[in-house]
TrEMBL record:
Classification via InterPro entries: Bact_HTH_transcr_reg, Chorismate_lyase_/UTRA_dom_sf, Tscrpt_reg_HTH_GntR, UTRA, WH-like_DNA-bd_sf, WH_DNA-bd_sf
PROSITE patterns: HTH_GNTR
Pfam families, per database record: GntR (PF00392), UTRA (PF07702)
Transit peptide listed as a keyword: no
HTH gntR-type domain: residues covered: 29-97
GO BP terms, alphabetized: negative regulation of DNA-templated transcription
Listed name of the protein: HTH gntR-type domain-containing protein
Example GO molecular function: DNA binding
The organism's taxonomic lineage, starting at the top: Bacteria, Bacillati, Actinomycetota, Actinomycetes, Mycobacteriales
Entry's transmembrane regions: none
Length: 289
């Protein structure tokens, strides 16, 4: 762990004077932005690595010649941006780098993760629920099925590298996937490998839509995050080689934990703002499946 060290006077920032027309709030905003940039500069100049401790709030206030309020505002912004982590009673530390993902890559979730300096992260899967229900009109349209046709709804939690989590939902029509191996999924087995081997369904291509959203209380609980923090919600449709849809999927990522890369182009225009408004499945009572 790199020490904080001395030489803070070298990083002291000059006090910036502003015309009175901007008011006190603009000056405070400017000062917290200075602290934000200062912390990033300290991380770069000292070569700090994930887990290394940063100067305390008092030290940063002294270095930047600003109030503690400005420092705390800057640290709040840095934490929301995923640059730092704060541990009660221990201090402020450089955050782990974000996980890089290319959701447009076909196949299992692990195939969408990109290599970093340490290689591919490990992925563990926990089954949350399996149910049968009736799709919303938008899901039925995307899948090309009648709204009265039952579908599987499968929720799983993926744990990446031991700490970061993704919520994943798959909606599969029963006419294409008549049965699901509950035990396999409960043991962390691959859903998409199962449907490929059992029903010869592979995603030849997908159409996806990305949006930044706030999680529901249920999503925040499973992602172990504050409800007000942002998530990236990916919703998509998978098509087989014949151009038939067989899966509507949804993935929820903590916005500050992942970086996304996309490439290629879609062949369909199914998903748009209105088509994302009702992405639900009404559960059936005692469906007998």
């Amino acid at each position: 762990m790199n020490p904080v060290g001395s030489g803070r006077e070298d990083l002291r920032m000059p006090t910036t004077k502003r015309a009175d027309t901007t008011g006190a709030s603009a000056e405070r905003k400017l000062r917290y932005q200075h602290v934000y940039d200062l912390v990033l500069g300290i991380m770069a100049e000292r070569g700090l690595q994930p887990g290394d401790r940063l100067p305390s709030t008092t030290e940063l206030a002294e270095i930047a010649n600003v109030s503690g309020i400005s420092v705390r505002r800057a640290l709040d912004e840095l934490e929301r941006a995923g640059k730092i982590t704060r541990r009660q009673g221990l201090g402020t530390f450089v955050a782990e780098p974000r996980i890089a993902s290319d959701p447009t890559r076909p196949g299992e979730l692990l195939h969408t993760l990109l290599d970093n300096e340490l290689g591919l992260p490990t992925v563990r899967t926990a089954l949350i629920s399996i149910g049968v229900g009736l799709p919303s009109m938008t899901i039925a349209t995307a899948l090309g099925v009648d709204p009265g046709q039952p579908v599987w709804e499968i929720w799983r939690k993926r744990v990446i590298g031991g700490t970061d989590k993704i919520l994943e939902r798959a909606v599969l029509p029963l006419d294409r996937v008549p049965a699901i191996d509950h035990d396999l999924l409960a043991d962390g087995g691959s859903l998409y490998r199962f449907i490929e081997e059992r029903y010869q369904l592979t995603d030849e291509y997908t159409e996806q839509a990305f949006e930044v959203d706030t999680p529901s209380s249920w999503e925040a609980e499973h992602l172990e995050m504050p409800e007000g923090d942002p998530i990236v919600r990916v919703r998509g449709v998978s098509f087989d080689a014949d151009g038939r849809a067989f899966d509507c999927f949804e993935q929820c990522y903590r916005a500050t934990k992942f970086t996304f890369y996309t490439a290629g182009q879609t062949r369909h225009r199914i998903l748009g703002p209105t088509e994302l408004s009702n992405w639900s499945v009404a559960p059936l009572t005692n469906p007998g499946y």
